[in-house]
Amino acid sequence: MKRVKLTISYDGTRYCGWQVQNNGPTVEEAVTLAVKKVTGEDVKLLGASRTDAGVHALGNVAVFDTSSPVPADKFCFALNSYLPEDIVVLDSCEVAADFHPRHCESRKTYEYRIRNTRFPLATDRLYTHHVHKKLDTEAMRRAAAFVTGEHDFTSFCSVGAQVESKVRTVYSLDILEDGGVITLRICGNGFLYNMVRIIAGTLIEVGLGLRDPEGMGDVILGMDRNLAGPTAPAKGLTLIKIDFL
Amino acid sequence: MKRVKLTISYDGTRYCGWQVQNNGPTVEEAVTLAVKKVTGEDVKLLGASRTDAGVHALGNVAVFDTSSPVPADKFCFALNSYLPEDIVVLDSCEVAADFHPRHCESRKTYEYRIRNTRFPLATDRLYTHHVHKKLDTEAMRRAAAFVTGEHDFTSFCSVGAQVESKVRTVYSLDILEDGGVITLRICGNGFLYNMVRIIAGTLIEVGLGLRDPEGMGDVILGMDRNLAGPTAPAKGLTLIKIDFL
């Protein structure tokens, strides 16, 4: 028996998110089925990040236990031959039998991409959120500075999320611009339900001049979801990578 | 009556190319239908570049004549409200009544993108051609140097193409690398049928070590399609822009 760790990229467009559910196809379901085809076993995947419907990933992580003779580093090749082309296992390796991707310290990096041009572009429409009015990125950067550090992020968590503590640390939040696309790149030790999308939605309001950038500190201190902006659309969000510490 | 010029971006994935044909949907057909919805007129679009099935565009150009009262610069908004989301008119303006996008001098820029990593990436699979073996980009650059300039490009033209002259000028052919993607960026005064894809297929063979980079000159001089490499897949190709001189 060995525990195999997968690094998985997917285009979330046609999936109802990571986690198995009844109302449509999920990434977890597709990967579990591919493992069954390779090993003949019904495994339980442990995923690092339960991404929402429509969210993309370049490097989500999941582990499973198997008695298969397939070497751990060959699983990526075997699984890719059974997976649809919008899910690709980029790497596979053996990890300690007690390694759990949600129960150990990690650093997650997400990107939220905004196409800020008059019209969307046909070839990146699935991976960016289009905002046609010009965003003030300097104002967005001033607001973003309040987000970094350790805070209670209740204001940036969808109501109904069941977690013990809403304190998280954001290590960095950079706002990059390239060819009409504004990328919010955020790195932290964990993110609450919809947290990145609510931060993005709030920063977009700042960029549109609808919200004072210096008010961002009060939004955090207020610990009330109603103080923050809307949840930005899923398709702009990509889980870039997870580093385990 | 006025002549309106459109700058059009599209994701070629689900289209049988630009030009109207019987075996499936085309971009020309979709745009013509949108013009009909806006103006009530049956117009004949004159396209600058008849891209193949599966090829993408950030800036193809087409013109049409209309008696519609809609101002030329407002057509982009009107057309986008009727177009599917994988076709976006980025700009519209009035041009001289005798402006024909294929009968005047222009400079076209194409990019051919190769994902050169062990596995494809789910989120760019539709817009790159995946080559898993590491490509030698220095050798590709040496071969690319033979392509620039004025040449008879018969060796890089699919057999059966009906054109008077196969002499074209390539102004530049740059090979860029970024995050596992190799981009061949080529700019010229015109391109023969499949020319960019055959140049890409030949340079990939050079990059794989299957072909001597210094042999590229003889491929051009030989004026024989059999001397060049295969036609690289359509999905890696994007028409970036057309500058009219």
3D architecture notes:
Two copies of one chain form a homodimer. Chain A has 245 residues and is α+β, with helices and mostly antiparallel strands. Chain A folds into two domains: 2-95, Alpha-Beta Plaits, CATH 3.30.70; 107-244, 2-Layer Sandwich (Alpha-Beta Plaits), CATH 3.30.70.660. Helices cover 19% and strands 31% of the residues of chain A. Chain A has five helices and ten strands; from the N terminus they run E-H-E-E-H-E-E-E-H-E-E-E-H-H-E. Chain A has helices spanning 27-39, 75-80, 137-144, 195-207, 216-222; strands at residues 2-10, 46-47, 56-66, 87-95, 106-115, 129-130, 149-152, 167-178, 181-188, 237-244. In chain A, strands 1, 2, 3, 4, 5, 6, 7, 8, 9 and 10 form a ten-stranded mixed sheet that branches. In chain A, helix 3 (137-144) crosses helix 4. The longest helix of chain A has 13 residues, at 27-39. The A-B interface holds A 9-11, 56-58, 76, 80, 85-90, 118-123, 125, 127, 238 and B 9-11, 56-58, 76, 80, 85-90, 118-123, 125, 127, 238.
Poorly predicted runs of chain A are: none
Helix content of chain A: 10-25%
Number of helices of chain A: 5
What pair of chains forms the biggest interface?
A: A-B, 23 and 23 residues
Content-based structural category of chain A? alpha+beta
First and last CA, distance of chain A: 25 Å
Mean pLDDT of chain A: 96
Short structural summary:
Chain A has 245 residues and is an alpha+beta fold.
